[in-house]
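Milestone 3.1: sequence recovery, worked example.
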């Protein structure tokens, strides 16, 4: 890590992938030092995607100093400390293992991998190389969700009975939406691994494992409503092999019951991620469309005042996570800030030696649940989740 004029050290970033997440991460790397006073400051050294002109345009927009069009060239550079993987899922394992072998820290988008076998390979690669690693399950860093975690840790809910989560979208209802290629790689099992299970439920599972406890076993059903779509690489109709919708039940290690649902066929819903947890003393509810509010019901409240409170998470006294770093009480932040928080936590982890979660190993637990869900949908049986 090279020194800088303001005495802070640099975390030299090499980003791979210039799409949705490439933008979200670049914004976070650029913003973090403006709001978090930390010993390391990200420097955007290089960005890589396959099209030279688009990559240069991206570099100019976000402030990257140089470009590559082959990810291997980026991984091999000796002026980069951390490789950030923002490409479709089928590339995560190969890039992460190469980056770890080259001694780089590795930040990887979710889901960790196409399946648990790949995920295990990735964990071994970063652990054997001894490099810092993290997976971008960014919803943990929504202040309201972090507050939920704190309340649960403090025992406010008591024994937990139920955990339920949904992630609903509607963008693939038309059978004219093709599969494969830019952004639509999500519909192509060869690049995505799975459909809503790895794309959307993985977020719900990561949050659940973190907030509640590990998942012991699952029973699931999936459906592919549109069986054939034009494939953009061949121009021909091809079978659709991803799950368009998935619902599963599970048992958590703490004895609670889980109900999860995800689909891209819920007309009217764009990114409705909701979760609700019911405990002995209290319940919590959160909704991505209103991400700055945490709803809370406490049975300990005086009877005549008992009811759901809607907590606007913006206090600056340090009692509500992350908010003292931003504006003034009452003013909320948004989606992009979750990535800023994740970078800040990663840098904190480097400074303290306490790695920011989820690490690759943490994210492998989510991958194992996804695998069990897909296996159960295939077999029609309850499946134990490998721990
Ligand atoms: N954390 C989240 O909430 C969240 C949200 C969206 C996507 N994701 C994850 O982020 C990853 C990327 O998704 P996205 O929505 O940004 O995709 P995208 O389609 O918007 O962008 C993908 C980028 O990867 C590049 N790319 C593809 N193949 C490449 C190669 N061989 N070499 C170099 N670059 C290559 C493409 O050119 C494009 O710039 C996926 O793993 C996805 O699951 C996470």
């Amino acid at each position: 890590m090279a020194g800088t004029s303001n005495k802070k050290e640099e975390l030299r970033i090499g980003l791979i992938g210039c799409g949705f997440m490439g933008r979200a991460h670049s914004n976070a790397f650029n913003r973090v030092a403006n709001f978090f006073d930390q010993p390391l400051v990200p420097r955007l050294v290089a960005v890589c995607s396959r099209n030279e002109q688009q990559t240069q345009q991206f570099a100019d927009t976000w402030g990257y100093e140089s470009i590559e069009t082959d990810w291997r060239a980026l991984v091999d550079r000796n002026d980069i400390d951390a490789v950030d993987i923002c490409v479709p899922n089928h590339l995560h394992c190969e890039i992460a293992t190469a980056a770890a072998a080259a001694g780089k820290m590795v930040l990887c988008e979710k889901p960790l991998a196409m399946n648990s076998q790949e995920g295990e390979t990735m964990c071994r690669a970063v652990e054997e190389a001894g490099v810092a690693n993290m997976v971008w399950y960014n919803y943990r860093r929504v202040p309201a969700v972090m507050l939920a975690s704190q309340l649960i840790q403090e025992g406010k809910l008591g024994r937990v009975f139920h955990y339920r989560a949904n992630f609903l979208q509607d963008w693939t209802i038309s059978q004219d939406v093709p599969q494969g290629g830019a952004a639509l790689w999500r519909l192509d099992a060869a690049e995505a691994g799975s459909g809503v299970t790895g794309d959307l439920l993985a977020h719900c599972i990561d949050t659940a494992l973190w907030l509640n406890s590990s998942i012991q076993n699952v029973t699931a059903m999936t459906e592919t409503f549109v069986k054939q779509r034009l494939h953009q690489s061949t121009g021909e109709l091809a079978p659709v092999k991803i799950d368009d919708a998935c619902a599963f039940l599970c048992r958590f290690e703490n004895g609670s019951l889980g109900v999860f649902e995800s689909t891209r066929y819920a007309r009217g819903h764009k990114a409705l991620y909701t979760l609700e947890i019911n405990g002995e003393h209290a319940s919590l509810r959160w909704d991505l469309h209103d991400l700055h509010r945490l709803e809370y019901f406490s049975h300990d409240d005086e009877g005549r005042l008992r009811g759901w409170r809607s907590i606007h998470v913006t206090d600056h006294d340090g009692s509500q996570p992350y908010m003292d770093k931003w504006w003034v009480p009452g003013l909320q932040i948004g989606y992009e800030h979750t990535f800023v928080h994740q970078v800040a936590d990663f840098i904190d982890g480097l400074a303290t030696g306490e790695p920011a979660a989820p690490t690759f190993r943490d994210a492998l637990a989510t991958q194992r649940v996804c695998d069990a869900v897909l296996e159960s949908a295939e077999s029609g049986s309850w499946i134990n989740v490998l721990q």
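The chain has a mean pLDDT of 96. Residues 360-379 form the longest helix (20 residues).
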